[in-house]
């Protein structure tokens, strides 16, 4: 089973995607192809033997074959006679974190060209990448979230209680996120957040709150879970720390919260994953406050897909590849157009 | 301003899209190009002078130039020397109703290739095309919806109160929708709905409920509304009737619900449209029950974009073309990769 890792993309997490994708060489036993989306959305096929992070920062990647999309796959113009060639792989792994990858753009493009892929489908991407839409969705599937206020750029923004945490609705990896302790700090935090996005949410900031991460997937209708981890963190994980997190391959330490909370976290995960996230391995980050479980966020494409949380990630990954969701067949019969033609002909 | 209408697509509403797109010839004063997505997702450029519905049901469209996507636009291989040629237009109008067009696939593809377009962006498509996600979103923006239950294919489905209306979550134009009057009718209705989708919602069916449609858009931060119409309908609009609706070009009759309700409908529209639907002309369908306004559904690409509800659709359309939402610039600097390289070099 040959996997084509598609990575990079027009995203604030472009670099994270590079690091995460390179780390997969140590995680997956599969043969790998790498397809890089650069900042201009030009595509390149990078030989897996040659891949390293410097290739991208230096611009050297441009010496490799340019790739492009056509029905059923990626192609390149290559060889002495500049012939069009199919790039060989069985399934795509979308590891473009943040924009392009996690906002549904890339999943849509792969769907449009009928390319099988591991990643959340378009709907699941949107539900998880936009924190405001996540809130509404979580409520619909009966999963608790912290109270919040939603504002767009031109709103009159008032905050009564501090401290709060202020987040652009659409970015991951803590980009543009601030903890605001008092009124004086508010304007700067707003300026930062609106630098990245046109809409924000503001939540109460609970100091010292315990966060727990659970990754999982669904294979043949059955959930497969990782261990629950309590990630090490500072006041909150900043970009640098999360960045390093994206290249984690060593195993995490399991935490046992007792049967009731362990179950509640798993049941919340199941309700969130639902049928919507089929085809993907996701990580849900929960808060536990006064013995109650709250969703913090859904990472629809966690760094290196949170392999470090699983005992045997490689096997789970390859089982998922064999169980990707099938699209419903949509018959196009021209029944109605024919009916109109027939009526006109009378 | 030349408009490229992209239509068809792999969708239960493929034929509706054809009828709706042809109708635009009478609505828009712009020069038009037509790009057809066939049932295999092959693309064809159809000359606007030659377009008619029979072209598609007969398969004759295949005699026209095949088109394909590249950065910045659509291209074709054409002429005596089989040269690659750019298809000339200023902006795309996405008129692929239902799947592909309204589920976010096509908007994502256009975004990926940096092609300016009129249609909801990916997030707005997902929020409006999946009725379950619509419910959560409407609640988040403080717009009422009818109570509902959500079920997926393998759930144990129980209904206590009848009549109910049963809807696949992802289809428009009443496809797969049934009114269920008693327990005996339930199983058949479920079989029909699950034929089209893996998830459904069940709502109480309110007989004789009044429905009101309002279309609108936002131009330069200001809302522009159509009239409010009470559409003529049978018990509920079935596919045939909605289908004819998609080729409507004659003006609709305004209904006046009094200042309070008129305003409440408009305010609900504004909260739904929010910043999410910028770049599109949508139609929201509301119920009024006991003087309270409820969202029925958001039509993110209504048939012929609900031109019949506007006094001067052509002007509004062309103003919107000039005010499409801009994407945030995302700088890709390799700051972090460089930092790692520097640390390694030490």
From TrEMBL, chains A, B:
It comes from the Bacteria. GO terms for cellular component: cytoplasm. Its EC number is 6.3.2.4. Keywords: ATP-binding, Cell shape, Cell wall biogenesis/degradation, Cytoplasm, Ligase, Nucleotide-binding, Peptidoglycan synthesis. It is found in: Cytoplasm. InterPro entries: ATP-grasp (IPR011761), ATP_grasp_subdomain_1 (IPR013815), D-Ala_lig_Van_CS (IPR000291), D_ala_D_ala (IPR005905), Dala_Dala_lig_C (IPR011095), Dala_Dala_lig_N (IPR011127), PreATP-grasp_dom_sf (IPR016185). Residues 135-326 form the ATP-grasp domain. NCBIfam families: D_ala_D_alaTIGR, PRK01966.1-3. Belongs to the D-alanine--D-alanine ligase family. Cell wall formation. This is D-alanine--D-alanine ligase. It comes from Aliarcobacter vitoriensis. The lineage of its organism: Bacteria, Pseudomonadati, Campylobacterota, Epsilonproteobacteria, Campylobacterales.
């Amino acid at each position: 089973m040959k996997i084509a890792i598609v990575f990079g993309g027009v995203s604030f997490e472009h670099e994270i995607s590079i690091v995460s994708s390179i780390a997969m060489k140590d995680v997956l036993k599969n043969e790998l192809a790498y397809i890089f989306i650069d900042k201009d959305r030009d595509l390149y096929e990078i030989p897996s033997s040659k891949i390293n992070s410097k290739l991208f920062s230096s611009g050297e990647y441009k010496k490799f074959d340019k790739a492009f999309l056509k029905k059923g796959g990626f192609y390149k113009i290559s060889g002495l006679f500049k012939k069009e060639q199919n790039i060989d792989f069985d399934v795509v792994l979308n590891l473009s974190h943040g924009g392009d990858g996690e906002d549904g753009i890339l999943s849509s493009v792969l769907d449009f060209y009928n390319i099988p892929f591991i990643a959340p489908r378009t709907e699941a991407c949107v539900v998880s990448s936009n924190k405001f839409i996540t809130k509404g969705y979580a409520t619909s599937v009966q999963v608790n979230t912290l109270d919040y206020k939603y504002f767009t750029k031109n709103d009159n923004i008032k905050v009564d209680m501090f401290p709060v945490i202020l987040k652009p609705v659409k970015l991951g990896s803590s980009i543009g996120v601030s903890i605001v302790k008092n009124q004086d700090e508010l304007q700067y935090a707003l300026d930062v957040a609106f630098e990245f996005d046109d809409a924000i949410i503001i939540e109460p900031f609970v100091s010292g709150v315990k966060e727990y991460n659970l990754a999982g997937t669904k294979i043949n209708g059955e959930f497969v879970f990782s261990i629950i981890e309590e990630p090490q963190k500072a006041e909150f994980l900043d970009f640098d720390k999360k960045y390093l997190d994206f290249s984690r391959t060593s195993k995490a330490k399991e935490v046992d919260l007792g049967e009731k909370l362990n179950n509640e976290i798993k049941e919340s995960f199941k309700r969130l994953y639902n049928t919507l996230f089929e085809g993907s391995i996701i990580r849900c980050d929960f808060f536990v406050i006064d013995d109650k479980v709250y969703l913090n966020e859904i990472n629809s494409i966690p760094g290196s897909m949170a392999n470090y949380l699983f005992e045997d990630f490689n096997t789970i990954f390859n089982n998922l590849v064999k169980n990707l969701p099938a699209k419903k067949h949509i018959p196009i019969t021209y029944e109605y157009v024919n009916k109109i033609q027939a009526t006109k002909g009378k």
